[in-house]
């Protein structure tokens, strides 16, 4: 539909976006999964996000028009554009880009004007995801985030900078680096000097304990060899012990700053008692209302700098008596940038400006990533892997970060790095049997569709180029994947036959190959203008 | 991203007969209760070669641990002496693939208790 | 004897009489399972530590029968009751007949 005219009639204002009736005596500000996006971007929310087991049909596993019906969001409205998929390209043209940490700063300043002692908490996945972050090993993000003056953060992709670098950066932080589940791997002991489990804050006359929960499956989802001295895990027994410990020390409000992912947080809230608020990260979900589990509220604040959550709480007599919440979308054209932060951001980017801005091609397509099975960015990356690495089949990891581009956009080097940059970006080329390819698909599928959230890792399905398959998400591991077909011949994949597979982001040490961003850049240069065929190669059963 | 070809495919086999035999040998064929023993292991192993496990059974004289899906299921048997401060212990074990890990305690009164947990060993990769 | 086998122990130097204390041990050892094959396809023979014990003043705390499924560099954590001043003795028994020992004194105070 053509929403641009409608949208133009609905004039958004900064006052509207920031309007909030200050409530209670404590304010929490949550940002998470920024993935090094300093500047405004487009970010399309998923249209396929399947919940399994008890989470089937529950938020955040509701998308598109169903999501809008559930929350009473009008089609074509700013909330439609910000929170759900559908008509993305035209709405993006009407409403413009989102995010930018200078705009985020304006929002934080405005909340602090209402409530000067508001707590700012960063859920992690902050020091990863861009050209400048990669080339400064996270320093650009540390410098800019320090400008926002957070009170605490927790971690995931930060560890892929390597144990030495993450330790160096953490030691220099002027705020708390929290992780009750970050342990020394050798003796299985906590690391209270580097990653304390919690920190107390006295705000609004309330004694608040913030407990950190890093991503539990870091050594599985990311290369363990990059940080072998650390062990993670959910450790919900230790979480309970920490909650009991802070309560015993007089905590009147217990906040978990979590990078578990939403469904894991829901389960943790049902297992651990005494947490008032979970600020949830990792799965990149953005929800306009907190979800209540028992007496715990769970807040999901999106990703890529697109949202800031504000949670005002009334805490009296050692109890959370009530809350008021707003998920604030960062409409970049509406929210005035904080000039000091713009300057700080531009200073980080200045040494790389020429490389960042180089135009590699243009796109006729909407390029996005989010979705359980495929996105057009990964279709393009898979095409690049097949043609540049001369492969039968391509695999692209189901990560959830990476902004979108809309039809007609230039594709700059920065755009390519925004969806590919990492510290293990080698594009491997190897031979795999059909049987082994199925083992991989079954393994990854179980990490997403296991009905018990504690067995999930919170990513999306590995994206496949050159091969189609059918998946029944309700089956157990080993039985979900069938009908594997080599697209170029139309033949069934033979378990015994060997295929050339190209991919990237292998967690194995010693993986060799050109960097994925160079592979994608070479491919786009040859294309000039990116056009993609609709991807119909995955048939989802019981989705 | 999914692992490259270097990755070993871990078999998902069960050696039920052997596991049952080992249990029968340990218990002498006695009945086994579902309570009286705690067994802790991660849902997903960070590394299949070194999976932390803990066993605890009040008053137990011995606790046997079996990995039902390993080529050879025996893992360890903890025998507690008179100066044991608790009847609990932790160690790290190897798991050749996703499987149920089983712990069986011989309790003070001579009865037996069992607990188990599914531990997933995964190829890994990908993430949010 | 496997090369470079080195036991390490974490134990408190003092305890109250009758106190229950936590003990942790690590010993560097490959724990060759007997399941692996070398590059020529020949099975690498099993060579593991098969038993670990801990005693205090000659009385047993724990006695562990270890199988090839115990990880490289075996780790144990357990608890001991310390009735009096004395010595904790940790002993590891290797398939090859080697015995590795470590002693930690605990004072009462
Ligand atoms: Mn993230
Ligand atoms: Mn994450």
From TrEMBL, chain C:
Family annotation (Gene3D superfamilies): Immunoglobulins
Domain Sulphur oxidation protein SoxZ: start-end pairs: 10-103
Protein name as it appears in the record: Sulfur-oxidizing protein SoxZ
Native species: Sagittula marina
């Amino acid at each position: 539909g053509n929403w641009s005219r409608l949208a133009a009639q609905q004039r958004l204002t900064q006052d509207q976006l920031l309007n909030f009736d200050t409530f209670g005596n404590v304010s929490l500000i949550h940002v998470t999964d920024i993935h090094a996006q300093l500047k405004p971007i487009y970010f399309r929310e998923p249209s396929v996000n399947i919940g399994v087991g008890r989470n089937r049909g529950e938020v955040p596993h509701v998308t598109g028009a169903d999501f809008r019906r559930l929350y009473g969001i009008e089609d074509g409205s700013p909330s439609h554009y910000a929170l759900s998929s559908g008509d993305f390209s035209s709405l993006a043209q009407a409403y413009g880009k989102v995010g930018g940490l200078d705009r985020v700063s304006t929002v934080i300043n405005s909340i602090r004007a209402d409530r000067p002692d508001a707590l700012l908490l960063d859920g992690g996945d902050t020091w990863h995801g861009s050209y400048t972050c990669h080339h400064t090993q996270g320093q650009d993000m540390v410098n800019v985030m320090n400008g926002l003056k957070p009170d605490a953060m927790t971690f995931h992709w930060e560890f892929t900078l390597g144990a030495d670098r993450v330790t160096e950066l953490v030691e220099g932080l002027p705020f708390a680096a929290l992780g009750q589940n970050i342990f020394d791997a050798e003796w299985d002991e906590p690391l209270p000097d580097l990653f304390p489990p919690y920190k107390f804050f006295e705000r609004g006359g309330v004694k608040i304990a913030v407990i950190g929960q890093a991503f539990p499956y870091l050594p599985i989802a990311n290369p363990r060899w990059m940080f072998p001295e650390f062990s993670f895990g959910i450790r919900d027994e230790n979480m309970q012990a920490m909650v009991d410990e802070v309560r015993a020390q007089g905590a009147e409000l217990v906040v978990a700053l979590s990078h578990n992912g939403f469904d894991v947080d829901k389960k943790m809230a049902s297992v651990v008692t005494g947490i008032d608020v979970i600020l949830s990260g990792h799965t990149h979900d953005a929800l306009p209302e907190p979800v209540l589990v028992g007496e715990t509220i769970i807040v999901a604040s999106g990703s890529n700098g697109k949202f800031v959550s504000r949670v005002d709480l009334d805490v009296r007599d050692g109890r959370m008596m009530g809350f008021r919440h707003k998920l604030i979308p960062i409409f970049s054209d509406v929210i005035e940038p904080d000039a000091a932060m713009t300057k700080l951001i531009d200073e980080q980017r200045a040494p790389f400006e020429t490389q960042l801005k180089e135009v590699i091609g243009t796109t006729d397509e909407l390029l996005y990533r989010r979705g359980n099975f495929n996105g057009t960015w990964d279709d393009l990356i898979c095409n690049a892997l097949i043609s540049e690495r001369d492969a039968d089949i391509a695999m692209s990891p189901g990560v959830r970060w990476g902004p979108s581009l809309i039809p007609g956009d230039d594709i700059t080097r920065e755009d390519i790095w925004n969806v590919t940059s990492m510290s293990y970006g080698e594009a491997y080329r190897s031979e795999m049997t059909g049987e082994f390819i199925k083992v991989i698909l079954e393994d990854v599928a179980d990490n997403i569709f296991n009905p018990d959230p504690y067995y999930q890792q919170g990513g999306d399905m590995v994206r496949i180029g050159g091969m189609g398959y059918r998946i029944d998400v309700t089956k157990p591991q080993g039985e979900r994947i069938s009908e594997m077909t080599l697209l170029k011949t139309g033949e069934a994949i033979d378990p015994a036959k060997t295929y050339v597979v190209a991919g990237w982001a292998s967690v194995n040490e010693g993986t060799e190959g050109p960097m994925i961003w160079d592979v994608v850049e070479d491919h786009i240069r040859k294309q000039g203008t990116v056009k993609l065929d609709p991807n119909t190669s995955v048939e989802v059963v019981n989705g | 991203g999914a692992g490259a070809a270097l990755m070993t495919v871990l078999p998902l086999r069960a050696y039920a007969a052997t596991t049952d035999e080992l249990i029968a040998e340990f218990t002498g064929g006695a009945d086994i209760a579902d309570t009286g023993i705690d067994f802790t292991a991660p849902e997903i192993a960070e590394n299949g070669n070194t999976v932390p496990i803990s066993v605890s059974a009040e008053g137990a004289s011995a606790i046997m641990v079996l990995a039902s899906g390993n080529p050879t299921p025996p893992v360890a048997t903890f025998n507690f002496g008179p100066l044991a401060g608790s009847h609990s212990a932790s160690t790290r074990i190897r798991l050749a693939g996703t499987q149920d890990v089983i712990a069986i305690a011989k309790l003070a009164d001579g009865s037996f208790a069992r607990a188990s947990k599914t531990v997933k060993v995964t190829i890994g990769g990908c993430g949010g | 004897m496997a090369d470079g086998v080195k036991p390490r122990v974490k134990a408190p130097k003092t305890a109250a009489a009758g106190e229950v204390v936590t003990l942790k041990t690590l010993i560097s050892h490959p724990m060759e399972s007997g399941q692996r094959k070398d590059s020529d396809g020949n099975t690498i023979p099993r060579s593991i530590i098969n038993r670990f014990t801990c005693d205090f003043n000659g009385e047993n705390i724990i006695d562990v029968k270890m199988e090839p499924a115990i990880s490289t560099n075996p780790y144990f954590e357990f608890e001991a009751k310390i009735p009096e001043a004395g010595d904790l003795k940790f002993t590891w028994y290797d398939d090859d007949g080697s015995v590795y020992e470590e002693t930690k004194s605990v004072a009462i105070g």
